[in-house]
Design goal:
The protein has about 375 residues and is α/β, with parallel strands linked by helices. It is built from 14 helices and 13 strands. Pfam families: PBP_like_2.
Length: about 375
Amino acid sequence: MKLQRKNGLRAAALGALVVSGALVLTACGSDDNASGGDGGGTKPSASSNIDCGDAKGQLRASGSSAQKNAMDLWVKNYMAACPGVQINYNSSSSGEGIVAFNQGTVGFAGSDSALKPEEVADSKKTCQSGQGINLPMVGGPIAIGFHLEGVDKLTLDAPTLAKIFDSKIKKWNDPAIAKLNEGVKLPDTAVQAFHRSEDSGTTQNLGKYLNAAAPDAWKYEPEKAWPAPGGQAASGSSGVAAQVKQVDGAIGYFELSYAKSQGITTVDIDTGGSAPVKATSENASKAIAAAQIKGQGKDLALGLDYATKADGAYPVVLVTYEVVCDKGNKPETLSAVKSFLGYTASEDGQKILTEAGYAPIPAEINTKVRETVKGLS
């Protein structure tokens, strides 16, 4: 696609605005190339297959901070190929994104959990002739990051994690932790557990894992709001990661890309399989690949097995959905929504995810996502 000189300059300027996101993603290579790489989709060829269609104008979106690093790169690539479209994604939280979507102030929302029935009902006011549907677009592990001076490797299981985040385990040399880490010298340091301060799909997915894998230790229903007493709160995945990075004795949860970009050591999960499982895109993909579509009609919400014991399957995973109207999208943004989400669901768009520390959506499910995007009206 030919770009005029002024549009090239504009794309370069816009690229500068997201350079921090691009640098984060460049640092988020696979485990065998953690020192960097080419940043995946930053290659000119990554945008050569983007179909801009008749998209134009401004497209606003908001929601999940879990997908921020992927969204930054997607937006950069798309706007370089389609300079007639300006996409503004506000990385806030899943809860805020759905509120904005149902208020009709954004073209789509990012959410780390599928719409609830009451949220679908609310969406009908905005979608008018249709309703909000869930399109799985980004998969990946929820890394459990920790900062413990003198300890660079740690294994935990679901019951122990539940007790840590429920403020039942208060010291790092607690017998339950020591039993899982024979030979590791654990200090008598206070546990500083950090959680999200705002409604978050990442919180809800962690809750689903703890609820499924440690039901006797985690009695809380999986909700977007943090349910347990105690602990310390921080805003966004970036805020939790920043606190874990700087506080000795800290532990928190966030997407793998945040752990990689900030050099945070992550916990290996003892699932009861043959060996503890590391938080990697590949291991998360093994868990997500077993997901089943549970949504009805055009809705593609997934059912995940958080209690999996399959060898090499990392169980603490999330899938971020792009929430859109199946019908009744605003005419002024419909073309941009279809064009942009068509790119993010494309082979090129999904390929970026692995290079960025995420996991692509399984091909069989992704094919249905592409078909659904084409049929949006």
